[in-house]
């Protein structure tokens, strides 16, 4: 260690941070002994040349990385002076002055090895320095790699850009391309100076397009009349009754009858058009959107009128939001395909013309504005403010007009009434024909559920609850069974109705012999349906809740879409079973898509534990079809129900909605299987063919239903079936035009049947109680058929059914009575109205309306009582 102390302490790593070619500053010698060279060996060893050869590359020429901090490590030389070449080293500046000054203070003892307490510290410092050095080298290498990669990438991009530029220059140097470029350069000047279309031109386009759309919509709700061969109709009458004649009358009544319904529809569509213009701030883009949307709406509206005798209403858009747009398109009948294709062609022309005019018009913004620099100038400030204000005001006016149009006494309703608007929303199709589809649609955007009955209060509802609790107790004294001891299956059979009921149509064989025989041996009758050609969900809603559409506001057209989704806890009869058995108390089967009529949402609100459909989490298992039909057969649906019954833990309420006989009625079945009917000579061929296919579907339903009931008879569990048809299909075009047949188009069939294991097997209620009914009475009639105890609510329905056998929203001129929004039948099937009812009937009807209002629009006071509970 002493030997080492007498030698220059030099470490190349200590100077690794010194930049290349940097010479240390010379420091004066403050201590130590100068000794001349003793011999040649020493001379050689300490000669400048030797020193240079030994250390020069380190001190002067070695290239190294530049470090952020300087170590300033110095060489120590003792005061005794054992290094003969000290003067040369001092002169070279390799020894710091501080070290030399401190040299005089160092004692020999300090030249001894370091104490053990200092060694770990030095080692830790050394390890840290080495780690820092290694990290620095790693980062330096990574930096070099990134720089190299960036350089390589930049070079590649440069090469690519150069290649593209070269190719572009080569392309543009072609003579033909040069000619094209010169043409556009010359055309750019005139193009830049092209005219801005005037606001007067915009106004003309606005007026013409809006008028055309009003006429197109109106044309879609009319149909060509048919005449019997024996009818003598002059040519003028035929022209006036034709579609063209009816549209002409609708427009011309502004001058002939002082009824400006054309103007009312024009204003409604015009407000939509203006809102699009001000929101987009592009006239031609708004024109494109308006023309396309309203044309598509008109096509869909016409097809729905044709198939279901009902126009499009706002609630129908829940089908689109629910993902059913594709499914709805599948309902388009074959005879409407050409109409749809023509409409698509018109839409394409509208789009092409609007885009061309958008390019030709130098006025891009309808109202000048600058969003980038809104306050750069007074013009920008005013323009931007005006553009935003116009958009907001146009939307607000449209919303106010639409939401108030169907509300009596509102500003838009009163203005429309002065123009001749007389709403008949209980028959939306007739309303569309009389007042225009645009007005009908807008008047239904905000649908009041039900007018508040006179005397509605908590005290009144408590009195009603007490009143019908007493009635229920009285009825229950003679009844021995419980509803929940049996499984109840409520089957809505799609479009099931006796096809032989309508006049002028006969068949070679009875399409429904089995069901006709069943109806003769069990509780059965004729159901008065509010629907024709459609309205399945409405009849289903009445059957499940016991409520009637006849009591709702005219604008409440589809409760499944307009009402139930907004309710927190709606009541339905399946809850009688769920109150006793919990989730396993009720299930539903519908072999189609669960979002149709929002059934997936509504059934959950009603308390069904599962809905088995084509697209449910647990889908229906049996999906067989008949022939080329796109719909699941009734026999497959019945098999799914049988599977549920076999696996059930307790009696259930099962809700079933079939699809087999849904429209359209194309050539689904084998020709030899199709029933043949005889019709009058003036029946159109399309109608005749549709009647045959529809009746063939009923034949399959008839056989499947018989087989289903036979299998239920083999199950040793009490089961009761409530079977009913929802409505007739909208294929009876001739009968639609005959007022005397309007009731026939709203009559379907129903029966209530119990299997052999049930105490109510072979029960048949007297025709005076069952001959006529409506779907809101089915649960109370089933309880009577089963001799089961009932709730106060079912007691009200039981008593109401005795006094008013059928209630429905039907329009008919039968018997010369103007029926308005509600139709009431007596036990013999004759029509009565509310003014000619007895005091008892009026009181029951008033109580019924109070109960319905409380459940749907009121405070639901009855929920606090036992009004819905079955003891």
How would you describe this structure to a colleague?
The chain is an alpha/beta fold and 871 residues long. The protein has 32 helices and 13 strands. Strand 4, helix 25 and strand 5 form a beta-alpha-beta unit. Helix 18 (428-435) crosses helix 19. It starts with a helix and ends in a 15-residue tail after the last helix. The model is unreliable at 1-16, 37-115 and 812-820 (pLDDT under 50).
Show unreliable segments. Answer: 1-16, 37-115, 812-820
What would the principal axes of the Cα set say about the shape? globular
Radius of gyration: 47 Å
Number of helices: 32
Question: Sheet bearing the most strands, described?
Answer: 8 strands, mixed
DSSP, total strands: 13
Question: Into which percent range does the helicity of residues fall?
Answer: 40-55%
Question: In angstroms, what separates the terminal alpha carbons?
Answer: 109 Å
Helical/strand content category: alpha/beta
SS strand fraction: 5-15%
Mean pLDDT: 83
Widest sheet: strand ordering: 5-4-6-1-8-9-3-10
